[in-house]
Design a protein that fits this description.
This protein is an alpha+beta fold. The protein contains 16 helices and 8 strands.
């Protein structure tokens, strides 16, 4: 499809047609911003819980100055540097193929699949280290701070890990798309459920546990006032609401983006556009199956349209549509139709004097003139018989004046052939009468055709018309059946017995346009 700015579900991720350098810069920037945002949220959460949410026991004791003003800032700076540098090394190492714009090998695809988890693992390890170190440091000075430190830093770390994973997965959608396209990524069949459970656990489950712990410890601490308990529960509730909302939004975005891309593409298909609609499959969960399934559906629609077009080219559009509307059967029905037969003059000489390639090119131009004239008047080019053409008017589509349409088409063919295909000349005959139109052959292989005396009559008239290719010939019944406006273009020539017929035929010829 024509790649756009939302190939990956967001304008922030750019287009699938972007070059490697621009893609690398975009992905690296989004990853860095994602990690900064996640850690900022975790730090803000930790400060809010320590200072207001769970005020007692307080961490702002004079004996803890070295922890608050030395250990914590130093660890934050070191963790930031380690996380950024190590994360960049991991991304560049595992995604070097994507930066170059190459197709990944199986090994590179496995590494790319592990990249989000490695980045999240780095964040988790840093926050786990912070939880352990700060719990020990605060606990050495005041043992009552151990459960508070463990819960506050641990909860913040869980939030950082969850937010980081969702943001990193978002930033690496272009890489996931390349891996999926290469056919290596194994989809997580319960991925949507896992995202929802993580969102609930971190956004609601852990804060609710925190509320229970605050209530439990407050009930057994004599120095905890009702105001402290109220403030603690309120802050945890606000945190639960805010983190729950944030994670729910991130999760919903990861779910709705693939669905929205499918919906937009379906709207285009409904408008009849199936040629340029191919989704970039970038989700490794069930939603990726949905995107891939849509692509398969569109591919099937394109193949169906191609087969229908090919079918129509072989048997005629109208015959094809009639066959697709119902179950075609052998046999036919009697209808009144007009038949035009066009036969090349001197085809043997043409083949002897020209190369096969030239002969085919000339015949294709010859046939193009006939097809255009016939289809303009709602006729059916029923057969190409070597260098001859059989066209039918009045079957399978009913026409108000099939004879008039056939006569007008014959005159146009004679005029256009002289202009567009001067290398060839042809005899043109027009017959009219009752024919049997339907499917002839075996049940395994049949074709639509017309059988009857008008077919033979038009073929014989085309032979006679080779005396003067500029003047198509028609039978009396054909001219008599046509409308008055078309009859004016034909003149009576002679009465003769055509080859193979026992009765005489009244023959008409098209009046030259310059007379």
């Amino acid at each position: 499809m024509a790649r756009g700015s939302r190939d990956y579900g967001s304008i922030l991720l750019g287009s699938a047609s972007e070059g490697g350098v621009k893609k690398r810069f975009r992905i690296q920037t989004l990853l860095t911003v994602s990690l900064l945002v996640a850690n900022f949220i975790g730090a803000a959460l930790a400060i809010s819980l320590s200072a207001v949410g769970i005020p007692q026991p307080s961490i702002f004791q004079s004996s803890l100055w070295w922890v608050n003003f030395i250990a914590v800032p130093v660890y934050v700076v070191v963790a930031f540097v380690i996380g950024t540098v190590l994360g960049t090394v991991v991304v560049v190492r595992d995604l070097r193929w994507a930066i170059r714009g190459d197709v990944p090998t199986a090994k590179e695809a496995r590494r790319a699949g592990r990249a989000p988890w490695q980045l999240v693992g780095i964040q988790g390890a840093l926050w786990a280290g912070a939880t352990t170190m700060f719990t020990i440091m605060y606990g050495v000075v005041d043992p009552d701070l151990i459960p508070k430190s463990f819960f506050v830093v641990g909860l913040s770390g869980f939030v950082v890990v969850a937010v980081s994973y969702l943001l990193i997965e978002f930033a690496l959608r272009p890489v996931a798309a390349d891996v999926i396209t290469a056919g290596y990524l194994r989809r997580k069949r319960s991925g949507v459920r896992a995202r929802s459970l993580v969102s609930w656990t971190v956004g609601s489950g852990i804060p609710v546990v925190g509320i229970l712990l605050v209530t439990f410890f407050g009930a057994f601490r004599d120095d905890t006032s009702k105001l402290d308990l109220f403030v603690g529960v309120t802050v945890l509730a606000v945190i639960a609401l805010s983190t729950g909302l944030l994670l729910t939004v991130l999760t919903s975005v990861s779910i709705t983006a693939p669905i929205r891309s499918v919906r937009n593409a379906m709207n285009r298909v409904q408008r009849g556009d199936t040629e340029d609609v191919d989704l970039v499959v970038y989700d490794g969960t069930e939603l990726g199956d949905l995107q891939n399934g849509f692509n398969s559906m569109v591919h099937g629609l394109r193949e169906r349209d191609r087969m229908r077009d090919l079918f129509g080219r072989h048997v005629g559009r109208d015959v094809a549509e009639a066959a697709l509307r119902s179950d075609p059967e052998l046999g036919g029905t009697e209808v009144v139709a007009a038949v035009v037969f066009v036969d090349v003059i001197g085809s043997t000489t043409l083949a002897a004097n020209r190369s096969p390639t030239e002969v085919v090119a000339i015949l294709n131009r010859f046939f193009a003139v006939i097809v255009a004239a016939v289809e303009r008047r709602q006729g059916l080019v029923n057969k190409f018989e070597g260098d001859a053409v059989l066209a039918v008017f009045g079957a399978p589509i009913d026409l108000r004046d099939p004879a008039g349409a056939a006569l007008a088409a014959a005159r146009e063919i004679a005029t256009q052939l002289a202009v567009e295909v001067p290398d060839l000349s042809a005899g043109i005959g027009v017959g009219h009468g009752a024919v049997v139109a339907g499917n002839v052959g075996a049940i395994e292989r049949f074709e639509y055709t017309v059988i009857g005396d008008p077919v033979n009559e038009s073929a014989r008239l085309s032979e006679l018309a080779k005396r003067d290719p500029s003047q198509p010939l028609a039978s009396g019944p054909a001219v008599d059946a046509a409308g008055a406006s078309e009859q004016e273009h034909w003149e009576r020539l002679e009465v003769t017995a055509l080859r193979g017929r026992t009765e005489d035929t009244q023959i008409y010829g098209a009046i030259p346009t310059d007379s």
